[in-house]
Design brief:
The protein is of the alpha/beta class. The chain is about 60% helix and about 10% strand. Strand 4, helix 5 and strand 5 form a beta-alpha-beta unit. It is globular, with a radius of gyration of 19 Å.
Length: about 240
């Protein structure tokens, strides 16, 4: 591999900084969550109401939405339901975690069923925030894009680039349809099968690994929220790498 290829491959293996929206009407909680996430390497924007959170999430692409359950203008459940129903919103398919100072068992079930990947109870610690960030960060066990593997499969750089352009289109479409597919496990399983093949030709090693894991955990009721969250995080990281 040439020096330029090695430099490119190295830069692609660097995980992107998670972009997080923290929505909380309590100034103290908002400050702690924002500062804590920044200290862990995230870039953070804050909102103090449901309306503000919706406006920011509609116009900006976030890797993670941290939404308080009770805010003026709509709590976490309302905000996420609105976003999920707006396919053209920039963060319509972003991972979401609900935050709350108190939560009944029935409320937890409702939040998970609505599409939240986890619930963060306040007050929380930096360790808790690190766990939340881990949901959207690519695991270092595999590189995002492996040029060597892609060149070995495709044969030459020109073919590799052409295949990666096709993969970019496939992933963008998949990201748009992910919410619909989670409700159709049969169609989802078929889509994942095809995706593994595409990843293999393009050297998308991290996504290939996550796809295999999601296939193994897919049930007749659909994917587990945590497994889907991890898959979605690597999908976004791969898209960013392909755009680089």
């Amino acid at each position: 591999m040439s020096e330029r290829q090695e430099s490119c491959s190295s830069s692609l293996r660097q995980a992107p900084r998670p972009h997080v929206l923290v929505a909380d009407d309590d100034p103290g909680s908002c400050r702690f969550l924002g500062d804590g996430l920044r200290s862990l390497g995230a870039t953070v924007e804050t909102a103090s109401s449901g309306e503000d959170a919706l406006e920011r999430a509609r116009g900006g692409k976030f890797d993670l939405l941290l939404l308080d359950c009770r805010m003026p203008g709509g709590g976490a459940l309302h905000v996420l339901e609105q976003l999920r129903g707006e396919g053209d919103a920039a963060s319509a398919h972003s991972m979401a975690v609900a935050t709350s100072a108190e939560l009944a068992a029935s409320d937890r079930g409702d939040l998970l069923a609505a599409g939240f990947s986890d619930i963060l109870l306040k007050p929380c610690t930096l360790t808790d925030l690190r766990h939340v960030l881990a949901l959207v960060q690519v695991e270092p066990s595999a590189s995002v894009l492996d040029d060597g593997a892609a060149l070995s499969s495709s044969g030459d750089a020109t073919t590799m680039r052409a295949l990666r352009l096709l993969l970019r289109e496939e992933l963008a479409l998949l990201q748009h349809e992910l919410e619909q597919l989670r409700g159709d496990p049969v169609a989802f399983a078929e889509r994942l099968h095809r995706l593994r093949s595409s990843c293999g030709f393009c050297g998308a090693t991290a996504l290939a690994e996550q796809t295999m894991q999601l296939q193994q955990q897919l049930s007749p009721r659909g994917p587990a929220p945590a497994a889907l969250a991890s898959f979605n995080a690597v999908l976004r990281a791969t898209l960013q790498a392909l755009d680089g």
